[in-house]
Amino acid sequence: MSRTKGLDIVSLNTEVPVPAPGERVTPRPVLEVSDLRVSYPTVAGPVEIVSGFDLTVAKGERVALVGESGSGKSVTARALLRLDHRATVSGRILLDGTDLLTLSGAEMRARRGRRIGLMLQDPMTTLNPVRTIGSQVMEALRVHGVGRAEARRRSVETLDMLGIPDAARRMRSYPHEFSGGMRQRVCLAMAIVAHPDLLIADEPTTALDVRVQEQVLSLIDSLVDEIGMGVVLITHDLGLVAGFADRVSVMYAGRGVERGPVRELYRTPRHPYTAGLLASVPRVDRDGALAPIAGSPAQPASRPGGCAFHPRCARAESDCATVLPEPRRIGAADVACHHPLTAAEEGPR
């Protein structure tokens, strides 16, 4: 992905004043999540899937949420939009300062699509096969009171911007008439046609070939620059994250275990789980066999005490099994680990 990985995101938000010489200005957060907890009912009682998760996204910022399957990433995404009525959600989810957990159903529906866009991983389950592409893209505007003619104009404009050839004519097409990459572009159009403040992209490149993956992420990347929205990219593919994100939040067993700037986190991971994930990813600058993480991910209904990663961790000591580690600042990262890696170490011992 060919963009300069700077952090010049202040300029994307016109509401933030230009800092005086020597003054440091932090971009205003569009999303602030604190102590998020999500549980689901089971025959044996409620099971907590997400346990005390924190996340902050500024306007114009790209934040990746990574972890193995089952770590709670997609559950977190659905909780942010309050999409699953079976779930019990607590904590705080602030969107531009408003706690979404305090809103009525109607107030929340008014923010979905218009303030928060969601792009899911499987376009064939996202798109309705018996409705035209145009009607589905327009719906995100129509439900918020935009007139039909204006909704159509903006939908054609968005599809054209995303590279759909002959967009006005293809508005009359059906999902099966599009390729996989084009269907994913349509899903992206549905998510951003209303120019939301925040886009949540949940595994948006799954099942796409490498060339189409690059195209989809490049489109999202350019939209951040053009309209200044914040992005939460949920993925298990750390290779994609390296070229896209400004910051990374690593999730394990429903908890955030490490978060920090992408460059520093990839260069010097401090949590053994983060180091294990990076060691299992093929890299052109490193020879030798990949090193998978030992053991299996913790199951929500039977998480071990203390640090949930300790049964799989070669650095674990007695306190790891009994005391839940709280995040602490180490360098540029926040790390929830009793025995983190040092800067001189390349991976878990």
TrEMBL record:
<keyword id="KW-0067">ATP-binding</keyword>
<dbReference type="Pfam" id="PF00005">
    <property type="entry name" value="ABC_tran"/>
</dbReference>
<dbReference type="InterPro" id="IPR050388">
    <property type="entry name" value="ABC_Ni/Peptide_Import"/>
</dbReference>
<dbReference type="InterPro" id="IPR003439">
    <property type="entry name" value="ABC_transporter-like_ATP-bd"/>
</dbReference>
<comment type="similarity">
    <text>Belongs to the ABC transporter superfamily.</text>
</comment>
<dbReference type="GO" id="GO:0015833">
    <property type="term" value="P:peptide transport"/>
</dbReference>
<keyword id="KW-0472">Membrane</keyword>
<dbReference type="GO" id="GO:0005524">
    <property type="term" value="F:ATP binding"/>
</dbReference>
<dbReference type="InterPro" id="IPR017871">
    <property type="entry name" value="ABC_transporter-like_CS"/>
</dbReference>
<feature type="domain" description="ABC transporter">
    <location>
        <begin position="31"/>
        <end position="278"/>
    </location>
</feature>
<dbReference type="InterPro" id="IPR027417">
    <property type="entry name" value="P-loop_NTPase"/>
</dbReference>
<keyword id="KW-0547">Nucleotide-binding</keyword>
<dbReference type="InterPro" id="IPR013563">
    <property type="entry name" value="Oligopep_ABC_C"/>
</dbReference>
<protein>
    <submittedName>
        <fullName>ABC transporter ATP-binding protein</fullName>
    </submittedName>
</protein>
<dbReference type="GO" id="GO:0005886">
    <property type="term" value="C:plasma membrane"/>
</dbReference>
<dbReference type="GO" id="GO:0016887">
    <property type="term" value="F:ATP hydrolysis activity"/>
</dbReference>
<dbReference type="InterPro" id="IPR003593">
    <property type="entry name" value="AAA+_ATPase"/>
</dbReference>
<keyword id="KW-0813">Transport</keyword>
<keyword id="KW-1003">Cell membrane</keyword>
<dbReference type="Pfam" id="PF08352">
    <property type="entry name" value="oligo_HPY"/>
</dbReference>
